[in-house]
Design goal:
By secondary structure, the protein is an alpha/beta fold. The chain is 41% helix and 15% strand. α1 (15-26) crosses α8 (208-219) and α4 (96-124) packs parallel to α5 (145-164). It binds NADPH dihydro-nicotinamide-adenine-dinucleotide phosphate and 2-hydroxyethylsulfonic acid.
Length: 246
Amino acid sequence: MLIDRHVLITGASSGIGAACARHFSRAGADVTITGRRQDRLDEIAAELPGSVTTLVFDVQDRAMTNAALAEVGDVDVLVNNAGLASGLGPMQAGDVTDWDAMIQTNVVGLLNVTRAVTPGMVERGRGHIINIGSVAGREVYPGGAVYCASKHAVDALTKGFRLDLLGTGVKVSTVDPGMVETEFSVVRFHGDRERAEAVYDGMDPLTGDDVAEAVVWIADRPRHVQVAEILIFPEAQASATRVHRT
Ligand code: NDP
Ligand code: 8X3
C-alpha cells in the first residue's frame, strides 16, 4: 500500500527520522527527507533504494519552510519528526535560548510544516499526518519542564488537528516513544557525549528502527483505520522516570 506514496519526513538527517526514511523507502514509498544538514541528508539519501528528494530548511523559519515546501508536490504522508531537547535542569536556572529552541522547533516548527502541507491533502481528500510526540507529552519530569511542555503541546496539536480535519479524509496520528538512543541526548547535553551515553547506562533503549516500524505500520493501515496514538517504551522503562538498570 505504500508503493509510490509520497512521504515527507522532517528531521531525517539523524535518528528516528533517518530510520523512518529507510523503512518507508524499503516499503516502496517515494520519500522527501528534510533537515538543516545537507551533508547528512545526502548520506542518508545515498542509502535509500527508492526515489528520494532532499530539502534543507530550518523548521523554525516560516519563510524558509514555506519556500522549501512550495515545490514539494503532493504529500500523502507527513511525518513531523524534527525536534529536540536542549538542556535539562530547573526552570529557575534555565537558559532562555534553550527554551526558545525547543518551543520554536517542536511546536512552531511542527505548525509551520503542517500548515504548508495540509491544504493540499484536504484538497485531494486524503492524507496522513503522523507526529512524533513523546512520553514527555504525557508526563512531566524534573528538569524537563519546557521540553515536556513542548511535547504536551504536540499532544494537543495532534488531538486538535484530528478534530479540525474530521471528514476531510486526512488522518492524524501520534507515535510517543520513551527512551530512544539517537543523537537526542548528545543534542540535549550540548555535545557532552559522556553525559549522553550515561542516559542509557545499564538498560537497552529503543532504536530509531523500533520507532520507524510503528510509524510505517500506522501509515500502512487501510484507509478507514486511523490509529490515534501509540506509546512505545523499551522493556526496561515503565514511565518517564521509572527505568530498570542492571
Ligand atoms: P536526533 O537528534 O537524532 O534527530 C533530530 C532530527 O531533527 C535531526 O534530523 C535534526 O536535523 C532535526 N532538527 C532538529 N532541529 C531542527 C530544525 N530547527 N529544523 C529542521 N530540522 C531540525 O533525535 P531523535 O531522532 O531522537 O528525535 C526525533 C524526534 O523524536 C524529536 O521530535 C524528539 O523530540 C522525539 N523523541 C525522541 C526520543 C528519544 O529518546 N530519542 C523519545 C521521544 C521522542 P538537523 O540537525 O540536520 O536539522
Ligand atoms: C524524549 C524522551 O524521556 O528524554 O522525548 O523526555 S525523554
